[in-house]
Every structure is written in structure tokens, then in C-alpha cells.
């Protein structure tokens, strides 16, 4: 396929999708670097060997997977132009996203209460804080994009096949969800 062919609308759509994928690849490399630094730092003498993931992180894993499902089905409903079902699923996704952030904050509280360590008192916890906070920043970006999608859907802008906004937001939402699954499994298995 020649990417220079097609209408201006089609070229714009391809360009926006490509820009999103470049961003996703860039973010993936950033998190790969952070987790690599975590692995290298494990060799330090002051590394905490008995790292226990907080219960809130387990619950947030379930919440993030559910949000990915609701976002997927919201996109399907919006493409089918089933307005009410689409809006309901978008709002459920928003609630799950906000719940995820709450659970991450609760997880930090659990870490502090269980171990007594604060952000800068142990290198292992410092890594967890940094990585999770950077992920939360991306979740907030996904929530902002979700607000834009909810607004546009409310204004009925996703009609007649013009669904680029929901497509991009869904791709980014799935990325940040997958990213948490990766981070959770990483912290679970690499202690």
C-alpha cells in the first residue's frame, strides 16, 4: 500500500495513528529502561529482598483489565452508533480508570504502612514509586483523552464512520492497561 495515496482525510487518519504508535513505542522504551535499571540495581547491597506487593496492586490489576474490556466494547457500540450503550461503557471505563488511580495511591500507603519505608529511604521502593507514578501520569493522560471522547460522543461527532478519536483513545487506553499488566508481572517476578 502506498501511504501517500488516498484522500486528505485518509492521509490524516493514517498520520495520526502512526504518531500514536511512535509515541507508544517511545513510552515502551522508557519503561523498558526503567525496569532495566531496576534489574541492574538489584545487585546493590542495600536492596530490599522481601518486597511484598500491596493488595491494592492486585485489585488494580483486575480493575485495569476490566477497564480495557469496557473501553473495547464502548468503541464497538460507538462504531455501531448505539449511543446510549457507548456512553454508558465510556462512563464505566472512566470510573474504572479513576478507581485504578485510587488503588495505586492506596498501594503506596500499604507499602509505607507495611514496611515503614518512604519514597527515598530504600532504592527498591524508590524504583517502584517512580515507575508507578510515571505510569499513573500516563493513566491521567488516557483519562483526559477519555474525557475528550465522552464530550465528542455526547456531541454526536462519531457518526458515519468518523470514529478516529475513539479509535486512538482506545488504542492508548489498551496500551496503558497492558503496560500495568507488564509492570505488575515484572514487580511480582523480579524481586
Automatic annotation (TrEMBL):
GO terms for biological process: aerobic electron transport chain. The keyword Acyltransferase does not apply. It is found in: Cell membrane. It holds the Pfam family COX3. It is a multi-pass membrane protein. One of its GO terms (molecular function) is cytochrome-c oxidase activity. Keywords: Membrane, Transmembrane, Transmembrane helix. PROSITE patterns: COX3 (PS50253). The keyword Repeat does not apply. InterPro entries: Cyt_c/ubiquinol_Oxase_su3, Cyt_c_oxidase-like_su3. One of its GO terms (cellular component) is plasma membrane. Residues 1-191 form the Heme-copper oxidase subunit III family profile domain. It comes from the Bacteria. The chain crosses the membrane at residues 20-41, 56-74, 86-105, 125-151, 172-190. Belongs to the cytochrome c oxidase subunit 3 family. This is Cytochrome c oxidase subunit 3.
